[in-house]
Amino acid sequence: MSVHTPPPAETPSEGLGSAYPVHKPYIHANTEMDELTWSAVLLGAILGIVFGASSLYLVLRVGMTVSASIPVAVLSITVFRAFSKILGTRPATILENNIVQTAGSAGESIAFGLGVTMPALMILGYDLDIVRIMLVAALGGLLGILMMIPLRRAFIVKQHGSLTFPEGTACAKVLIVGEQGGSSAKTVFVGFGLAFVYQVLMQSLRIWQEYPAKAIKGFKGAVVSLESSPVLMGVGYIIGFRIACVMVAGGMMAALVLTPAIAFFGGAATEPIFPGTKLISAMSPKDIRDAYILYIGAGAVATGGIISLFQALPLIVSSIGSGLRDIRLSKRGGAAEQAQRTDRDLPLWMVGLGSIALVAAIASTHLMPTDLPGRLVGAAMVVLFGFLFVTVSSRLTGEIGSSSNPISGMTVATLLLTCLIFVLMGWVGPSYRLAALSIAGIVCIAASNGGTTSQDLKTGFLVGATPRSQQISILVGALTSAVVIGFTLLLLNDASTVTTGRAEYLPTAKVDVATLTETTTYQDQSYHVWRVVNPIPGAQPGKYLVDDQGQARFLIDPAINGRVDTRDDGSKVVKYDAPKATLMALIIDGIMTGKLPWNLVLIGVFIAIVMHLAGVPALAFAVGVYLPFSTSAPIFVGGLVRAVVDKIKRTPAEESDSSPAVLLSSGYIAGGAIAGILIATLAIIPQASKLLDLSTRLPAHWNGSPWPSIVAFSFMTLVLFLVGIGVLLRSVESPAVSEGVKGREEDL
Question: What residue ranges do the domains of the chain occupy?
């Protein structure tokens, strides 16, 4: 129930924000209504677990996830409305729905961090350790949230109008149109429905290709491709033409400059060039990207991130100073009472104590299986890299959105620096490999959750939420998701692990059992455990059960990064390639053995420096280099449509950000994301996926042609354009929506 009071006097934003219109949230700061309720937190935690589990499946299969905030917000509105009608309870407030999406968003970011790093345990020759996995997830999730809190004023408040936070802005629009209902909501839900049906037809029924591609004749190694995704098109429309152009330029450099150059100059090589494992002349463009371009992109992303950090330092220092002033005021009995509801954070002393407690936990647990100096150094690196990349991630989500945020690139940079420090200190034993991976995992999840938290706080800033309530809810969501998603990772691996005695999978070499210290029992017999981490003559990497004579009798092939997809009884199992985890394991092995391709990394470093000196946003360009060109292309299409619409309509920037096409883009993101997650969940049942797949019943020339995909994607582009110029859904836009997102004068 709202308590109506006169709106507060308007004051211009500080710093950079003063160049932009005064911000008035949808719900005024002196309006009191239900917000941090048990029902909102509980629903958010449940949805966070569901979306987190589905996102984990996605990242294990393809190394990517989709932002969960908007789908969770849409579901929250729907679920609370249904309960209100069925049970006769009061309708949920917009602030309660915002708490649901805030708590629910933590699951996806934690799932991504776990899926990128922890499967590397098995690739490095270790078993999945549920305690380690849960500790990494919980510590990383909490650390990212706590480190983001002091940055809120710098990035959310002072740079309002400068940093767009596309998903956060879109989520606010979804919440506002859901609150208003009526015709205003139709634009979002039309976009939601179109994108949902589109994604099902493409990804589940497979009626057209998801990644149409075309090799350029006479230009070896050059391939132009497009992920025909309305989700990415919607992101491109929201982030705008400038950043979309910079990103696709980075993608063009990778796909049309670097890859063909490597194919041309390396084509005459008579032996593989490290880190590749086969001749460049025999490599496809994808092979070249996986073997070489990813390292160049990682170097560029790391450098762009460092440049971004230095650019943000004045704002960071100012924000921390504001927090310290709040502490001094509170000691005199002022800050907590004087601060407006919409500007109340968790106390800075609580943030500091929480961070210290997390660091102490990192240094004192078996996450760092080393001596005391190693644990202290590891904890210090978590703090240093965590703060660096939480800052970078939070700012980057404001520029290009969560969907394009290169968290894995930041993780690569963390792992590179951690392993290099360990090598310089002479720490190269097995325990330090575990420590390096744990540090990277915590930082990865912290950066991912920091970016997610910044999007959530932007949503709250626009709708008029209480930051403290959001911060509490996402802390709860992070803890619950960390526990359940850790077990989900273990379940997915155990369900498809194959133990086989087929000769084609067993080593021909024998091992001296005196060197093996681990034993296990299988089929009532005792065996020695032989872990082969790197290929050796007569034995491929894997975990083998060996008899007393040193002969391997069984291979235990994991579901994650395994190579056996059929059990001995002929039944098929699902395998997860975990591409990003493979990269993490390769980096650890590469540095510990001194074989990291530093030339490739340094090429990326200087690409980012050159872009910065030329006045191009280095980090956005580096993201384009790191991501597949197919990912940048639909983002560019969305940005191009935005530029054309704004040119035709001559819409002021502040009104353009609240236009019907932005609402439709929000629907594209929500509908495509929910469909993708549902399809990923359904894919856990192979029989269901096979039954829905219609591609086998379509003509071969249809399946092999890119044109059905291009036509379908063009249709979605045309709808976005026509809505943007006002030909379609003209009666849908409501002035209250535009005023609500910018801020409105009336109370609810």
Answer: 498-557
